[in-house]
Amino acid sequence: MFLRKDTKAVQVGPLTIGGGAPVVIQSMTNTATADVSATLEQINELAAAGCELVRVAVPDETAADALPEIVAQSPLPVVADIHFNHRLALAALHAGVAKLRINPGNIGGEKRLAQVVDLAGEKRVPIRIGVNAGSLEKRLLAKYGKATPEAMVESALDHIGLVEKLGFTDVVVSLKASSVPLTVAAYRLLAKEVNYPLHIGVTEAGSQFGGTVFSAVGIGALLLDGLGDTLRVSLTAPPAKEIPVAKEILTACELRRFGPRIVSCPTCGRCQIGLMELAKEVEERIAHIKEPLTLAVMGCAVNGPGEAREADLGIAGGKNQGLIFREGKIIRKVPQEQLLDEFMTYLHDFLAGRQKGSG
């Protein structure tokens, strides 16, 4: 089992980011922030999907004026995403946001940065410093010739130095690129330099399918390195679609569980049951369950129970009949048409026994 990097704990509203706390899932709205009702509707969709922290763009005063109502009604802590304008950052802080996303070097100079940092410190609001490979400073591009891990880390350290100089250390850092190898290399390099919590992700990852693959590879690699305290899966898709992907990545890395995991085989010529349909129906029937179980849906009665012995409970298909098994041991044979109903009965009994045992 890998060890997570020991990072500074930062408080974002009711959430703790870093310090060994569970990795936080976040997303960003794509509505016009000035449209309060549409923004809140999307935040509620994200919350229902399991998002824990939401970022909103604040490009102008109209958006800033909407923040007090959004913050007051949001079920999630709100992060204000601001570029260049320190007045918008100050307005966001007065509106009660839980975190700012700015780049200290482009907020208007040291005097204006000091105003933002002083108010953030007073209100105990952390700052996320976000470096993006696509918008590196010209001097760094000239120095390194292109966006490299070293250039991204130098940019981050420069921005971090500006707020540290002002005595501010409630910082979260991100280093994002659309290239997975560049993103992973940059985070690995930065992790050797600082112990601030890291917000991880692959930016501009792509469409729902492609972006899922790129995000899983990049975010998964970092998590298995022990890096990452909060994450976002960036997809060109409705924001709520990002959350199931984030959950699956964390589940795959064995960092968090969000209900049952289904283990199922890819089928082969020995399969004598409609396994794809069966797995889908099991998934639908257990959608309401929150217990962190491992359930198996296997196509082969010969090898299935043994191959899925780590499952709390499972089913395996056979000719005209199926098996129900627990931890690799067969507990009942039933006609194929009764397999799913019998499995659900055993599952409910299993859950009732577990809850009784913990009561």
UniProtKB/TrEMBL annotation:
Entry's Gene Ontology BP terms: isopentenyl diphosphate biosynthetic process, methylerythritol 4-phosphate pathway; terpenoid biosynthetic process
Domain IspG TIM-barrel stretches: 7-247
Top class in the EC scheme: oxidoreductase
Binding note for cofactor: Binds 1 [4Fe-4S] cluster.
Tagged with keyword RNA-binding: no
Pfam families: GcpE (PF04551), GcpE_C (PF26540)
Family statement drawn from the similarity comment of this UniProt entry: Belongs to the IspG family.
Protein name (Swiss-Prot/TrEMBL): 4-hydroxy-3-methylbut-2-en-1-yl diphosphate synthase (flavodoxin)
